[in-house]
Amino acid sequence: MNGSTVASGNASGNIALAVGNTTDAADAVRAGQAELGFVEGALDDPTLASTAIAQDQLVLVVAPGHAFAEATHLEPENLAGVDWVLREAGSGTRSAFEAALGAAGLAAAQLRVTLELPSNEAVRAAVEAGGGAAVLSETVVAAALRAGTLVRAAFDLPSRPFRVLRHKERYRSRAADALLDLIATANAG
Length: 189
Known about the structure:
Layout: E1 4-9, E2 15-20, H1 22-30, E3 36-39, E4 48-62, E5 83-87, H2 92-103, E6 112-117, H3 120-128, E7 134-137, H4 138-147, E8 151-152, E9 159-167, H5 174-188
Parallel strand pairs: 5-6
Antiparallel strand pairs: 1-2, 1-3, 3-9, 4-7, 4-8, 4-9
């Protein structure tokens, strides 16, 4: 999943998808521009229903020549001494990473963020090019890990849920219900 996605339909039955971050997806659902929002970030909004639909593992990745590539264990304080490539503020990936840092006793402000980018693919490409360390979804970096263009660093991060957002007081279309049923079936099998 590249950031967050919103899905909306029109009278002719066409479905439109747009990609943004968690904040963008929530705003679109809240404003009625989208019926569903698929997000990886936590959200506390009383107008939106949020349902977990899948799990995702965050991983710290670096290019093969990076100092973290050969480390057998990293402590939180090790993270402050390197360049970072991160998603933009408002991204669920960034929020989850910052929360994990806080739980480990490191403030996000202690990181040396040299580049902020608006998509997971852009972050991945910058790290592959040697731009620094990053935290991304294991799904986003799986092919790069297999190809050896990225290395998973030895720092444990929490898993997080992927969620679907719906407005609590708006009509639920059959198309949206069918899509959610399809996702539930795929996750069950």
